[in-house]
Design brief:
The protein is an alpha+beta fold. It is built from twelve helices and eleven strands. The strands form three sheets. It has a five-stranded antiparallel beta sheet with strand order 3-10-5-8-11. Keywords: DNA-binding, Transcription, Transcription regulation.
């Protein structure tokens, strides 16, 4: 079920589901009752190394523990759980709402036009909706609309899903401004270092392969950077770097007509043969085979 991280805390990709190879543009939404009801309304301590969550609690309530803080869950309310934050939730029986789990690549895409959206989504928090000036029925409808688009296969589905997710991020941003002192968890230094490392990866993963470079930019030793990454993501700093390169390569292979050699160049490889070995070793099939497989699944 979960990948045991340091201290025995499971790392999940989607709660209760683990995939060794995570697509960074993934978004998932499900009613709270579907996951929590069968588990006695308890979500046991875990973290999502590559995903963040926004939960809407329409009715019910309970309590959530994020890192070292125990917080009550208001209804209606919004819970924000950034990637890497250890959390446990105890819902009141019958609690109704939705849990949106978005990969970091999806968050980056949705917040590209306004970096404040990503900043707000990176703040662990519990926000009551009452008294904020937000249109609560409209907020609830946004989650319902996202769920409808997620389970239907209608034209423009992917665009509609992203649009509704952007609306949710705008809600989170406005709540973060309205509740400057909302009960928020305080992630530790490992978490802070991981967040800064991920941001640095986005700038340099195509051109830098040296862990020493990233550690130097972050003003820590490579060993310190590795320890933080292992503690908070269950992966080494190098594994996170390689994972990011592979995901970018997959995007080019699936969404563009670039040749494999061009994809190699676009992801920072001078030697296409080395790129082929790098990709095959981590994905299990060659870039060309991966492209064919993806085309068959799309068809």
């Amino acid at each position: 079920m979960g990948d045991k991280a340091a201290g025995g805390i499971p790392h999940y990709y989607l709660y209760g589901d683990q995939e060794a190879d995570v697509e960074l543009d993934l978004l998932h939404i499900e009613p709270i009752r579907e996951r929590s009801g069968p588990n006695d309304w308890r979500i046991r301590p875990h973290a999502h190394p590559d995903h963040m969550q926004v939960l809407l609690v329409k009715s019910g309530g309970g309590g959530i523990r994020m890192e070292d803080r125990q917080l009550p869950i208001p209804a209606p309310g919004i819970l924000v759980v950034p990637a890497g934050v250890v959390h446990q939730i105890d819902f009141d029986p019958g609690t109704d709402g939705f849990a949106v789990t978005a990969a970091l690549g999806c968050l980056r895409t949705a917040s590209a036009g306004d970096p404040r959206l990503a900043t707000a989504a990176g703040r662990p928090a519990v926000y009551p909706l009452a008294g904020t000036g937000l249109d609560i029925p409209a907020v609830i409808d946004t989650f319902h609309w996202l769920h409808r688009e997620f389970i239907w296969s209608a034209p423009g589905r992917r665009t509609a899903i992203l649009a509704q997710y952007m609306r949710i991020l705008v809600v989170v941003l406005r709540l973060s401004i309205a509740h400057q002192d909302a009960g928020t968890a305080t992630p530790d230094r490992d978490y802070d270092l991981l967040v800064r490392y991920r941001a640095l990866l986005e700038e340099h993963f195509r051109s830098q392969r040296s862990l020493g470079f990233f550690a130097g930019e972050l003003a820590v030793t490579p060993a310190r950077l590795n320890a933080a990454c292992k503690a908070r993501s269950g992966k080494t700093a190098s594994e996170l770097l390689y994972e990011r390169i592979v995901i970018e390569a997959k995007r080019y292979l699936v969404y563009t007509e670039s040749t494999v050699a061009q994809v190699a160049h676009l992801t920072g490889f001078d030697d296409p043969a080395y790129f082929n070995r790098f990709f095959t070793q981590r994905v299990g099939i060659s870039p060309g085979a991966f492209r064919k497989q993806a085309a068959r699944s799309e068809g």
